[in-house]
């Protein structure tokens, strides 16, 4: 069995602030949006208003809006088509405007997304006080220091990956020891980005941090698994990670397979 233990110092750095017990985690009650005449088509305008209600992220009004949608006799897909035609006429046939009008009738999908975003906003408020969620975290500050004046580093896409890896490996005390360490750090970056995007306008984020995230993903094809369960956790992650391309997935799978005969 490979004798590796999780790096606790690494785990501590790449961990989000704890949820504050006294923080208000429920979204504040919002005034429902005003009903407006937008298209002049009463059913289209009704659905537009229901969509605005759903976008508030309030569970009660969302449930009421979904029930109200069921009372509309005309199939929502037909109403969507009328809305698409309205957008075509009023945008001069702008293909982007038309493209974004599709999915108009998917109120269930909108509700699911809106509730998920509201939950992230509540979590962001509970973990970060005020606007501190947009300040550099200790983990980001570490990444910035590690890549300061790094040869060939311009941004997270245009950089010398070997040099970036060398810089991060210099900080052995904060390197992942295990595959579980890697998954822990990747989850940290994923959650931090999700919380920030829910809390407000947020771009790609710090380039040094993204380079670190990708560097750690690369370690999934390098560090040997300790157990079958750990190997399966990596495979489950890699299978659904949008940032992992087919070649990377193959490399990760080869690393896991090469460590056959692992304990459960």
Brief overview, please?
This protein has 264 residues and is mainly alpha-helical. It has two domains: 135 residues, no CATH class; 86 residues, no CATH class. The chain has twelve helices and no strands.
Spans where pLDDT lies below 50 across 5 or more residues: none
Please tell me the overall pLDDT. 92
**Overall outline:** elongated
Kindly provide the radius of gyration, computed on alpha-carbon positions and rounded to a whole number of angstroms: 24 Å
Helix content: 55-70%
Key features of this structure:
2 domains; single chain; 12 helices; 0% strand; 264 residues
Overall description:
There is one protein chain. By secondary structure, this protein is mainly alpha-helical. It has two domains: 8-17 and 133-257, no CATH class; 42-127, no CATH class. The protein has twelve helices and no strands.
